[in-house]
Design brief:
Helices cover 42% and strands 15% of the residues. By secondary structure, the chain is an alpha/beta fold. The protein binds nicotinamide-adenine-dinucleotide.
């Protein structure tokens, strides 16, 4: 994937870190410092900036990666995770930050991409000092980066961050649960896929195999059922299945059977990497379109879907409603405006399929191109009118 153009401001600190387990490498002398090739890593995908901050009093060790601020402040959650090495933490931050740039770009938001990671055990109860240290770190970037919740963090943690900086979103009592907006975006995305595939976006008489009856799956099922679609659903939690069966007239199946269900649409709304070597040949559908992040185990599974003539709605395009909801909180949008913006996923997906057809590439690559086109166009406008 070609990286987007970057903005003018770029500061990349030189960093070398002490390996945590030098003893594991017999050629490594104790105390010797080894390079992480940090600048090479930043250059590889044109990241603008990486910031590291260590606060000995709280034990805070945090990395903030800013991939791009071309479209606006870099937004991305804070992941709190016990990484096996500092290098793993850095790579995760860089990878996730870049993904946020693309997601915001195709969602048509004026946001760039960033991400932060805190290294440590996310079950710790000593959170205030840790997250306030993170808040200081975020504040030091003066709005170039805005944070939110992610794996291992909670709305309560965001409140601690808020004590130190305004550049945080997803606060208690603000935009709230993003799932209804995400589900609406996925529903509109499924309709766009139907339009592309069948010439009509009506879901009456169409069938959907729904994997995951959680927050998004539940709301999605209601929207699909109201549109006349027949749903087959699964979840590891029987209570969640029951609710969808009762409220959306769905038919339940076992968690592994969902891949074999003959249907128009397979909607993954549970886990990532569900399109993989074990499942791709089993699918008996014409469309894959759901909320889950990172649905393709590897890029090549996107090619395999293409070869099987299965229309794939790239995950980060169709599930952009969650980010749109966060953006709504940042800018004080009314809920209807967030929903309407999520509805635009319909047109975005049709554009992605058009690019795929014109350029002869799989849809997941076409989505990247759409994001890159928007970023390059806005970068050019900004250069022209300084
Ligand atoms: N919530 C959002 O706004 C949002 C936004 C963007 C992306 N997503 C992604 O969409 C997916 C669903 O999000 P959610 O908020 O509904 O999460 P959730 O945790 O509420 O629901 C996930 C459901 O999947 C079920 N599940 C787990 N393993 C399963 C398996 N092997 N087979 C079947 N079901 C299984 C869980 O029991 C749960 O009910 C996730 O991948 C999430 O990252 C969510």
């Amino acid at each position: 994937m070609k990286a987007p153009a970057k903005s003018s401001a770029s500061s990349s600190p030189a960093v070398s870190i002490r390996e945590p387990s030098a003893a594991a490498d017999p050629g490594h002398k104790p105390g010797e410092r080894r390079s992480l090739d940090l600048f090479a890593r930043l250059a590889e995908h044109e990241h603008e900036q990486v910031s590291l901050y260590y606060d000995p009093s709280s034990g805070y060790r945090g990395i903030i990666a800013i991939h791009s601020t071309v479209l606006g402040p870099a937004l991305g959650g804070t992941r709190f995770w016990n990484y096996s090495s500092e290098e793993d933490a850095l790579i995760d931050a860089l990878r996730l930050a870049r993904g946020m740039t693309y997601k915001a770009a195709v969602a048509g938001l004026n946001l760039g991409g960033g991400k932060s990671v805190i290294i440590g055990d996310n079950r710790t109860t000593r959170r205030e000092a840790l997250f306030r240290a993170h808040g200081r770190h975020v504040e030091s970037l003066k709005g170039r980066y805005v944070t939110a919740e992610d794996v291992g963090t909670s709305t309560g943690d965001m409140e601690f961050i808020k004590a130190e900086t305004d550049h945080v979103t997803g606060l208690i009592g603000k935009s709230g649960d993003p799932s209804p907006v995400t589900a609406y975006g996925v529903y509109r995305g499924i309709k766009a896929c139907a339009r592309y595939r069948y010439g009509s976006d009506s879901l009456a008489g169409k069938s959907v195999a729904l994997q995951g009856c959680g927050s998004v799956g539940y709301h999605l099922a209601r929207l699909l059922a109201a549109d006349g679609a027949a749903i087959t659903c699964t979840d590891i939690d029987p209570q969640r299945v029951k609710r969808v069966v009762e409220e959306s007239r769905a038919k339940p199946v076992g968690t592994d059977e969902i891949y074999d269900v003959p249907a128009n649409v397979f909607a993954p709304c549970a886990l990532g990497a569900v399109i993989n070597d074990q499942t791709v040949d089993r699918l008996r559908v014409e469309i894959v379109a759901g909320a889950a992040n990172n649905q393709l185990a590897e890029d090549r599974h996107g090619e395999l879907l293409e070869q099987r003539q299965i229309t794939y709605a790239p995950d980060y395009v169709i599930n952009g409603g969650g980010l749109i909801n966060v953006n709504a909180e940042l800018h004080g949008w009314a809920p209807e405006r967030a929903r309407s913006k999520a509805g635009e996923i319909y047109d975005t997906l049709l554009r992605v399929f058009e690019i795929a057809r014109e350029e002869g590439v799989p849809s997941y690559r076409a989505a990247d191109r759409l994001a890159e086109q928007r970023i390059a166009a806005i970068a050019k406008v900004r250069r022209n009118f300084v």
